[in-house]
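Need tokens for this chain, all 322 residues.
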Amino acid sequence: MIWKWMPLINMMFYLGREASKLWKKICMETFVELQLLAEKWTFLLAGLLFQYIHGLAARGVHYLHRPGPVLHDLGFVFLPELGVQRAYLSETLFSIIFFSFVLWSFHPFVCHSKRFYTVLLWLRVLSCLVVCQTLRILTFYSTILPGPNYHCREGSPLAILPRPDNIFEVLLLNFPRGVLYGCGDLIFSSHMIFTLVFVRTYYKYGSNRIIKIASWLMVIVQSLLIVAARKHYSVDVVVAWYTVNLVVFFVETKLPEMPDRSGGSPPILPLSSKEKESKAKEENQKLLNGDAADWRQRTQMNGKHMENGNHHAHSEATMNGV
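Here are the structure tokens for all 322 residues:
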């Protein structure tokens, strides 16, 4: 009767063997990424801290915001209004894009088709975000427009923030309510900054063409939903489209190109002494087997390759008039 359980037993052995391989791969990848993190942690920490500074700036402009009549907008004319009950559609799509990108950025830990180092990828992403958010802060503090969102309009108790009782009320951003119900930080859309940076990054370092096409379609839908939900004016989305793309292009030209791990490029980290010894032994073995190319230096003269000894004799003959 044991033969009936053989398929299940074989499957359990197979799963155990594959799980062991996966665990070894995760450990090895973690070791490499931790070494990179030890080198780049100051830049990553600065990028993460700037996310808080950006939130602090958005919180501060809310104190300066004054509600008024919603400005005339072509997007509001042509796109049907989602309303308060369906405004969540915009945030839902943004959450899908955001968390999908975060999960994908860590896929080298478990997948064999790894094209990048996660630490270096997030270093580039945060660099783009910091530049875009800096421009955004300068823009929405220059001219504070009346917010088109429902909680920012005249008559809403959330449109004007009362004077804070203490500094902690400002520094803590009244999280999460203060983040979800902000007003005044309009030009240009922060949601579009994250969406465009993430999609452009996947378009460059991702490998699935269908997902690339689908991601750009999601960006277009996200743009329309932001306006339809009345979270931003159309100008906020339009400015984000060309500003973020120009910033990403500029940052990519300034940062060194990230090594493509799938192309057999040399490792980004120095080899250990054991790895160097192993590599030297392999090269010596190739030389003994005759697999390596001829190491003797050759000089090309008159379209022919000559060895050093023949070249020396030819030179002497030429000097003697032969």
